[in-house]
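Example 314, ligand magnesium ion.
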Amino acid sequence: MIRVTSTQRAAVFIDKGGTGKTTSAAHLGVALNQLGSSVLLIDLAGKQGDLADALGVFEDVQRDISTEDDFPNIATTMGNRWSDVAEMVGGKEAVERLVYETDSGVDLIPAHPDLDGLDADLGNIDDVQERYNRLRLFLDDHVEPLERWDVIIIDMPGLANNITYNGLWAAQNVVTPVSMGSFELKQARSLKNDLQKIRSSYDQEVQLTMVIANLYDRRTNLHSDILARFEDEFGSVMAPEYIVDSQQIRTVTEEGQSLFDVPDEELLSTAEDARDAFRRNAAELLTRLRQGSRSTPTQSQSRNRSQTRSPETQ
Ligand SMILES: Nc1ncnc2c1ncn2[C@@H]1O[C@H](COP(=O)(O)OP(=O)(O)OP(=O)(O)O)[C@@H](O)[C@H]1O
Ligand SMILES: [Mg+2]
């Protein structure tokens, strides 16, 4: 049986902190929204709620948590009783209750403090396929039928835990922002190897779909050298554009916005380059996701196809 998915999914991941995962998830999401896709962002990146912060809904989310108006939440979707929750709250409405609309046009399922405990709970599930399949089943069975979103982007923690694996299983496509250093090159290489291992050991099609050079400084030769090495090694998996190091990204993020919210006349030239680069990368990401998902193999078929579908080898 071939399952044709209507929603494209990507997880923004590398097991390192501070490389721009949350920034990329937010900017790619808003860019795709502006390009005409309806976008859902999901924050698996831990209780600090960075994505809610970056999208200007941090206070709404915190208020709901502190007044215990936070059920169900993202952790509930991976608990063992989502079907019961859906029945209790009413199927469609249960999903609606997870989602916050943001001023930038994207929708968000924010992180929740219960994600911490969930990681341990998932660890108690012996069957790995079940342990890592929770988020995917939730998206397949409860989100897809709503036909509300064209693209789902998952912001991931900077480490590999049980929740991370749920994100990888659910998205199958990995977007990796990297900063420009030889250590980061090694880390991206080891991520590529890890994904290869996941494909062969767990019968999953998880693949590296896009590596984005982030925090690029045009003034240093080191960065252009490292970028050339990334391009040599990752070839067509590299995003078409690097993202420059732009102080304005930090400033707007702290204000709960993205570069797309800044009026043109207030955008500094490096930030404008970064914004345009995010837009171009977002369009390319959508193309790659669509190419990769014309048909999604069922688990029994995926093993046979795993040799032919990894973009790293194209
Ligand atoms: N291109 C850029 N130019 C300038 N600052 C950037 C850029 N990309 C990210 N940053 C800043 O770097 C910091 C880390 O970025 P971000 O939070 O996106 O990383 P992360 O990978 O999500 O980190 P964590 O692993 O902690 O979740 C933030 O302050 C962000 O504003
Ligand atoms: Mg983050």
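Summary: Confidence is low (pLDDT under 50) at residues 295-314.
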